[in-house]
Amino acid sequence: MIDNAVALSAIALGVLVLVGLAVLGIAGYRLWRTLMRVKTRVTAASDALLAEADRLQQSLDALPERQAEVQEAIASLQRRAAALSVLAASAGEALQTLRAPLRFVGR
């Protein structure tokens, strides 16, 4: 009976090791599949992030041009405001000149 116990123990140990290896293999396979899915998601997210970075870089590159356009528009607006103030002053003087005879009439 002792000889059978050693053989039986060796067989049981072999079965347990094989079951452990099978469980380890299944867990490893599931981990590998999960990692591949995460890698796919990360790759897609990094591509989207790179596209957004490229878009922002293009916006930043165009910013000096836009700033120059805005400065030009501001300068144009200042010139128009100066011309308008001259016209307003001239119109005020013309109105005073036209109203000057009314002071003599008594109105």
Describe this structure in words.
With 107 residues, the chain is mostly helical. It has one helix and no strands. The chain is rod-shaped and about 145 Å long. It starts with a helix and ends with a helix.
Give a quick precis of the structure.
Helices cover about 95% and strands about 0% of the residues. It is mainly alpha-helical.
Write the layout of secondary structure elements.
Elements: H1 2-105
- Alpha-carbon distance between the two ends: 142 Å
Output the radius of gyration. 44 Å
Overall pLDDT metric = 87
Helix content: over 70%
Instruction: Supply the number of helical segments.
Output: 1
Which word captures the global form? rod-shaped
| Tally of strands | 0
Low-confidence stretches: none
Largest sheet: none
Helix and strand pattern: H
User: Approximately what portion of the residues adopt beta-strand conformation?
Assistant: under 5%
Could you say which structural class the secondary elements and strand pairing correspond to?
Answer: mainly alpha
Descriptors for this entry?
single chain, rod-shaped, 107 residues, mainly alpha
